[in-house]
UniProtKB/TrEMBL annotation:
<keyword id="KW-1134">Transmembrane beta strand</keyword>
<comment type="similarity">
    <text>Belongs to the outer membrane factor (OMF) (TC 1.B.17) family.</text>
</comment>
<keyword id="KW-0449">Lipoprotein</keyword>
<protein>
    <submittedName>
        <fullName>NodT family efflux transporter outer membrane factor (OMF) lipoprotein</fullName>
    </submittedName>
</protein>
<dbReference type="InterPro" id="IPR010131">
    <property type="entry name" value="MdtP/NodT-like"/>
</dbReference>
<dbReference type="Pfam" id="PF02321">
    <property type="entry name" value="OEP"/>
</dbReference>
<keyword id="KW-0472">Membrane</keyword>
<dbReference type="GO" id="GO:0005886">
    <property type="term" value="C:plasma membrane"/>
</dbReference>
<keyword id="KW-0564">Palmitate</keyword>
<keyword id="KW-0812">Transmembrane</keyword>
<dbReference type="GO" id="GO:0015562">
    <property type="term" value="F:efflux transmembrane transporter activity"/>
</dbReference>
<feature type="coiled-coil region">
    <location>
        <begin position="236"/>
        <end position="263"/>
    </location>
</feature>
<keyword id="KW-0175">Coiled coil</keyword>
<dbReference type="InterPro" id="IPR003423">
    <property type="entry name" value="OMP_efflux"/>
</dbReference>
C-alpha cells in the first residue's frame, strides 16, 4: 500500500475492504457535545483549511524535508503498518458469516481382537483378530446463519477500527510535518543567533580595546579606570560564552531534525540561514467544522462506534446460534476405489444451540463491552474539549505574540539608535564607559529577543495549523 495514500483509501473505500454488504457504523460525533458558534478570539470564521501551509511557511526547502520525513520516519512507518494490520483484521472479521469449505483425504488401517467369544478352533490361548482398512475423500461445507446480526456487528466494529487507524495515520502525518517544521525553525533561529552572537563578540572586543586605550592614556578627563577595563573584558568573555551556547543549540537542533528525517544524527544538516517572515493568518473556520476535519477527533469517534458495535455483539451472544453442515465424499476399504462414485456418501445437518448456563461469562463480557463504550465516549468528549482548547489558545497566543513582537521591535529600534549614539559619544570623549556597555548590552539582548519572538510566532502558526486539523499534502 502506498503509505501516503493509505488514509484516503481507508476513508473512501474501507467498506469495500470487508465486503459491500457491510455498512459503516453510524456516526456518533453528536454525542461529543455541542460546538460553539464561533471562536472566542476570532468572531468571523472562514470556511476551509490551508493544506499547503508547509510551503507557505518554509518554501521548497521545508517541503523537501517534510517529504523526506514522510518516506523515512520510523514512527510514521509504524503507523502505516498499523493501518495494514487493521485492513487485514477487517477482511477477516466476517469470516464466520461466510460458508466454510474444506477438502479432506483420509486413510485408516486397524487390527481388532475378539476376546471371550466362544469360537472353536482357536486353541486354549488363541485370540481371534481382524485387520481392516478404510479410505475416503470428502468435501465439507459449514455455515452459521447470522440470524440476529452478531457477526455483522463484529464486522462493523472491525471496519470502524480500520477507519480509526486511517485517521490516526493522517494525524501522525500532520504531527510529523509540524515536528519537522518546528525543528527547522529552531535551527534557522539558532543560525541567526550565532551570527548575532558573533557580532556581539566583535562589538565587545572593540569596546574593550577602546576602553583599554583610554586606560593607557591615563588622562583624568577621558581615561578609563582599571575596573572599567575589567568590566569590558568580562563582557568579552560573556559574549564568547554566549556564542558557544548558540553553537550548541544549533548542533542540538540539527541532530533533532535529522532524527525526524530518519537520518543518523550526525549534525551535518545546515538548515536555513534565516527565519522566514510570518505568513498570513490561516483560515480558522468554525468550531463545528473542526469536528468533521481534525483526524484525531474522527479517530476517537470511530473508536466509540467500534466499542458500541462490540457491546451489541456481546448482547447478541445470548441468542441461539444456527449452524448448518453438509458433506459429500466416498468411503471404501480399498484405496483404488477412493474416487469411485459407487462408494459415495453424504450428509446434511443443522443445529440450534441456545446458551443456558455459561458461568456468568456472557454477562461479564457484556459488562466489559459496556464499560469500554463508556470509556470511548468519555475519551471522545475529552479529545474534542482539548481540541477546542488548543485552537483557542493558539489563536490567543498569535495575537499576544504579534503585539509583543511589535513592542520588542520598537524597543530594538530605539536601542540601536541609543547604542550608536553612546558609541559616538564615547569615541568623541563625551560619554562614559558604563553608558556605552549598558547600551550595547541592551541592543544585543533585544535583538536576540526579537529573533526568539519571531520563531515563537512561527511555532505558534504551526501549532494553529495542527490544531485546526490542517493536513499537509505533498
Amino acid at each position: 500500500m502506498n503509505r501516503f495514500l493509505a488514509f484516503g483509501l481507508v476513508s473512501a473505500g474501507s467498506g469495500m475492504l470487508v465486503g459491500c454488504s457491510v455498512l459503516p457504523a453510524p456516526n456518533r460525533m453528536g454525542e461529543a457535545g455541542a460546538a460553539p458558534g464561533s471562536w472566542s478570539n476570532q468572531r468571523q470564521g472562514k470556511a476551509g483549511i490551508d493544506d499547503r501551509w508547509v510551503d507557505r511557511l518554509g518554501g521548497r526547502s521545508l517541503h523537501r524535508l517534510v517529504a523526506e520525513a514522510y518516506g523515512a520516519n520510523p514512527d510514521l512507518k509504524a503507523s502505516a503498518a498499523r493501518v495494514d494490520r487493521a485492513v487485514a483484521a477487517a477482511r477477516g472479521a466476517g469470516a464466520a458469516a461466510r460458508p466454510q469449505l474444506n477438502a479432506a483425504l483420509q486413510g485408516n488401517r486397524q487390527k481388532q481382537n475378539f476376546i471371550g467369544l466362544p469360537i472353536s478352533g482357536t486353541g486354549s490361548s488363541g485370540v481371534l483378530s481382524s485387520i481392516s482398512e478404510s479410505y475416503g475423500a470428502s468435501l465439507s461445507l459449514s455455515w452459521e446463519i447470522d440470524l440476529w446480526g452478531k457477526v455483522r456487528a463484529g464486522e462493523q466494529a472491525a471496519l470502524a477500527d480500520l477507519q480509526a487507524q486511517g485517521e490516526l495515520y493522517r494525524a501522525a502525518r500532520a504531527s510529523l510535518a509540524a515536528q519537522v517544521s518546528r525543528a527547522w525553525l529552531a535551527l534557522a533561529e539558532s543560525n541567526e543567533q550565532i551570527v548575532l552572537a558573533e557580532q556581539a563578540v566583535k562589538i565587545r572586543k572593540d569596546n574593550a580595546e577602546l576602553i583599554f586605550g583610554r586606560f593607557q592614556t591615563a588622562d583624568s578627563d577621558t581615561g578609563a579606570s582599571g575596573s572599567q577595563v575589567r568590566l569590558a573584558q568580562t563582557d568579552v568573555a560573556t559574549a564568547e560564552a554566549t556564542l558557544q551556547q548558540r553553537k550548541g543549540e544549533a548542533d542540538q537542533a540539527r541532530r533533532q531534525l535529522e532524527i525526524l528525517l530518519g537520518r543518523y544524527p550526525s549534525a551535518e544538516l545546515s538548515g536555513s540561514a534565516k527565519l522566514p517572515e510570518v505568513p498570513a493568518h490561516p483560515p480558522a473556520g468554525l468550531p463545528s467544522e473542526l469536528l468533521m476535519r481534525r483526524p484525531d477527533l474522527l479517530a476517537a469517534e470511530r473508536q466509540l462506534a467500534a466499542a458500541g458495535k462490540r457491546r451489541t455483539e456481546a448482547k447478541l451472544a445470548y441468542y441461539p446460534s444456527f449452524p448448518l453442515t453438509a458433506s459429500a465424499g466416498t468411503t471404501t476399504n480399498e484405496l483404488r476405489n477412493i474416487f469411485d462414485s459407487d462408494f459415495g456418501v453424504w450428509s446434511l445437518g443443522g443445529r440450534l444451540a441456545q446458551p443456558i448456563l455459561a458461568g456468568g461469562q456472557l454477562r461479564a463480557q457484556e459488562e466489559i463491552r459496556t464499560a469500554e463504550e463508556k470509556e470511548a465516549l468519555a475519551n471522545l468528549q475529552q479529545v474534542v474539549l482539548n481540541a477546542f482548547g488548543e485552537v483557542e489558545m493558539a489563536l490567543a497566543a498569535d495575537q499576544f505574540l504579534a503585539e509583543r513582537e511589535g513592542s520588542v521591535g520598537e524597543a530594538l529600534k530605539l536601542a540601536i539608535e541609543g547604542a550608536d549614539s553612546a558609541q559616538q559619544d564615547f569615541a568623541g570623549g563625551a560619554g562614559d564607559v558604563l553608558t556605552l556597555l549598558q547600551a550595547q548590552s541592551r541592543r544585543i539582548e533585544l535583538a536576540s529577543q526579537h529573533l526568539t519572538l519571531r520563531r515563537l510566532r512561527l511555532d505558534n502558526r504551526v501549532t494553529l495549523h495542527l490544531a485546526l486539523g490542517g493536513d499537509y499534502r505533498l
